[in-house]
Amino acid sequence: MEKRRKRGKFVLRAIDDTNIIPDRYVFMNNPAPAISPPAGIGDHKPANQAVLDWVHEVEQLTQPENIFWCDGSERENDFLIAESLKQNVLIRLNEKKAPRSYLHRSNPNDVARVEQFTFICTPTKAEAGPTNNWSEPAETYSKLQGLLKGAMRGRTMFVVPYIMGPPDSPLTKIGFEITDSKYVVLSMRIMTRMGEIAVKRLGHDPKAEWNRGVHSLLDVNPERRFICHFPQDNAIISVGSGYGGNVLLSKKCLALRIGSYLARKQGWLAEHMLILGVESPAGKKHYVAAAFPSACGKTNFAMLIPPKHFAGWKVTTVGDDIAWMQIRDGRLWAVNPENGYFGVVPGTSCKSNPNAMKSIERDTLYTNVALTDDSDVWWEGKDGAPPKHAIDWRGNDWTPDSKEKAAHPNSRFATPMRNNPVLDPQVEDGNGVPISAIIFGGRRSGTMPLVFQAFDWEHGTYIGATMASETTAAATGAVGQVRRDPMAMLPFCGYNIGDYFRHWLETGKRLTKPPLIFHVNWFRKSADGKFLWPGFGDNMRVLGWIIDRCEGRVGANESAIGHIPRLQDLDLGELRGVTPNQMRELLNVNAEEWQKEISDHAKFFESLGSVVPKELDKQRENLAARFKS
Ligand code: OXD
Ligand code: MN
Q1: How many helices (DSSP H) and strands (DSSP E) are in the chain?
Q2: Residues in contact with 612: Cβ distance below 8 Å, sequence separation at least 6, in sequence order
């Protein structure tokens, strides 16, 4: 039965009976009314006429009460936090336990990325390719304009200038996001370099390259939720959602979807990869980039603390989600375009990721975690006993006996990267860091060994193109199903995936010192369904082998699928809880499982139609042939 609830002039329709929202919840999450800033706040207009014209156009369409031009200053941030607290967009947390940190609850119908409502709007369907939802640009603009007409009446329209990338990098991009959500403004200040820095970089040139992003919550209704990208116009329009991945337009929308389109055009790579540094006790440092699908532990890996046995080794974080890489001197050099981390909270603990715990101790914007009676935050998997009572992510009373989770499985933290105690010192270097190895990986209970190395770049491209993972809560939809997710870019490649594979192959040809390519799987299970590998800090043992391979100082078995370490090639000293038999199981290549895997690769490529470069079909034939020889 359809139910309707009125709050002010917005009508929120519950999707079904289970989605009826308690009063205090609805109050927190409806779009909040306009705010009136005092003089000197919210009036920082840029001088660039192209921006002014565009903002004027959006103003005419959406008819906000007023316009707030953000400058990214401390004073502005303090004002916006105070207003957000007044309007119940944020809840203040215990200043002693979580200094300068706040909780936000998104609408329960709006807790993850919505791939089914995400569109690439290129002139032809072929340009968007078989893995993207496509929508014709003119029609889509007109539909969105219809939805945006008068959408900001009674609200403040914020204009957020930002840059992605270190200020002095040639890869750095400028974006402007218009939004009617204070939560978006506060998050963008954490996740990007926001404000004055972007305005200065843009300057006066009306022809300068910059991304136009428009976001409106509308009435936060899944029936009017669309995340649309117009790569040829360097433009994004996102409506009907308040969830980070759909509305922080800098991140998935610009840095990956539009970014990957620009990268191909301009000859670089925009990838869904963490970047980490590994320093040996002798002071030799390598940088590694790794692509795992959403919620497969990129943040944990990027902040890894080596086990005691690896005393003197140090891992540092350049980025935890996105890598922009360019070619220089025949090598790949990577920068992290972001300025903060937007990580999955549940499961984060001093055991799984002590550095993330330190990073989120303060200055953190939490979304959809539980609130304890002493105004602290709690989530499943946090250290210590669960609280006896809390308010869950929906705003309901919760006790350890409740059937519901206290924190949503995709609840998030947004925290400045400066808080990370192992932040890499090169993170601001516009030249980027030289990449020695690329690691692909996924969540696979079977088939994929703990680690293997590609024979060369083309083989590595094939491994990336066929990688798969069991789905998680980061996107809406069923959890736990194996889905192919090429280079972890399935939801993020802003153009035809066949052309993306071709771009990888062509990039390889331009590299005289290409990174070595590996595949890892921390999630292999035994026949009785238990994880075989402890993961977390012990992943250093795998990383150690990868670094040794880069240095050419360790052996491997040549198997049909690539180079696999023998037991003696891995440093397993003081590894607890894994028997030699389990290690053999972890490194095993089961020919029967691989027959199925290879036929799944073929089916996947077939499902993409004729776009896959023939070199990759040849790679599959070679792989099958190696099993027969
Ligand atoms: C993310 C994602 O939020 O990949 O990083 O979904
Ligand atoms: Mn991600």
Answers
A1: 17, 33
A2: 465, 498, 501, 605
What is the Å distance from ligand 2's center to 560 Cα? 31
Residue 482 confidence class, pLDDT cut points 50, 70, 90: confident
CA atoms within 13 A on the CB side of 505: 17
Reduced to 3 states, what is the DSSP secondary structure of residue 231? helix
- Cα–Cα distances in Å, from 349 out to 133, 220, 254, 320, 406? 37, 32, 31, 17, 16
**Residue 621: CB partners within 8 Å, gap ≥ 6?**
none
Q: Are strands 66-69 and 156-164 parallel, antiparallel or unpaired?
A: parallel
H or E segment to which residue 319 belongs: strand 314-319
List the residue whose alpha carbon is closest to atom 3 of ligand 1. Answer: 245
Query: Beta-carbon neighbour count of residue 558 at 10 Å?
Result: 11
Does position 487 have pLDDT exceeding 60, yes or no? yes
Please state, in angstroms and as integers, the Cα–Cα distance from residue 106 to each residue in 29, 202, 414, following that order. Answer: 6, 33, 14
Name every protein residue with a CB atom under 6 angstroms from any ligand 1 atom.
113, 245, 294, 321, 342, 474
Q: Is residue 7 scored above 50 in pLDDT?
A: no
d(CA 516, CA 454): 7
The label of the residue with tokens 């996740």 reads 191
Give dist(CA 411, CA 365) in Å, integer: 11
Ligand 1: atom nearest CA of 112 is 6
Q: pLDDT-derived band of residue 284, with 50, 70 and 90 as boundaries?
A: very high
Predicted confidence at residue 28, as pLDDT, reads 52
The whole-model pTM stands at 0.94
**CA 488 to ligand 1: nearest atom:** 4
Catalytic residues, by residue number, are: 296
**How close is the Cα of 341 to the center of ligand 2, in Å?**
10
**Which residue puts its alpha carbon closest to atom 4 of ligand 1?**
294
CA 311, chain centre distance (Å) = 31
Cα–Cα dist 214/174, whole Å? 14
From the list 394, 395, 392, 396, the residue with the least C-alpha distance to 406 is 392
Q: Which residues, 6+ apart, have CB-to-CB distance to 100 below 8 Å?
A: 362, 363
Element (H, E) at 229: strand 226-230
* Bridge pairing between strands 226-230 and 10-14: unpaired
* φ, ψ dihedrals at 230, nearest 5°: -120, 85
How far apart are alpha carbons 210 and 160 in whole angstroms? Answer: 13
Question: How would DSSP label each residue in 520-569?
Answer: E-TT-B-TTS-BSS--GGGHHHHHHHHHHHHTT----EE-SSSEE--GGG
Residue 199 and residue 44 in contact, taking contact as beta carbons nearer than 8 Å: yes
Query: Considering only CA atoms, which residue is closest to atom 2 of ligand 1?
Result: 294
Ligand nearest to the CA of 246: 1
Using the structure block, give the residue that is written with the tokens 């040996």: 280
Instruction: Please tell me the distance between residue 559's alpha carbon and the centre of ligand 1 in angstroms.
Output: 33
Distance 402 CA to ligand 2 centre (A): 30
Ligand 1, atom 1: closest residue by C-alpha = 294
R_g (Cα) of the chain, nearest Å: 24
User: 415 CA to middle of ligand 1, Å?
Assistant: 14
Can you say how many angstroms the Cα of residue 620 is from the centroid of all Cα atoms in its chain? 29
Checking if the pLDDT of 619 tops 50, the result is yes
Give, for ligand 1, the residue of 247, 248, 252, 292 to mutate: max count of ligand atoms closer than 8 Å to Cβ: 252
Give the pairing of strands 193-194 and 133-134. unpaired
Among all bound ligands, the one having the nearest atom to the CA of 245 is 1
Res. 46 pLDDT band, cuts 50 70 90? very high
3-state secondary structure of 471: coil
